[in-house]
Amino acid sequence: MSKPYDLPSLGDLACFEAAARNLSFKLASTELNVTPAAVSHRIKALEHELGQALFNRQYRGVELTEAGALLFVSLQRGFETISESVTRIRSRHDRTGVSIAATTAMSGLWLTPRLAAFWKAHPGVAISQLIQDDQKAQGVDLSIHYGDPEAEDDETRVLFHDRILALGTEQFARSYGIARLADLSDVPLIHTQSGVNPYTEWPEWFAYLDRPAPRGPGFFLNNYLISLQAAEDHVGAVLGWEGLLGSHLGSGRLVPLVPDEMPSPHPFYLRIHGRASANARLFADWLAEH
Question: pTM for the full model?
Answer without folding.
Answer: 0.62
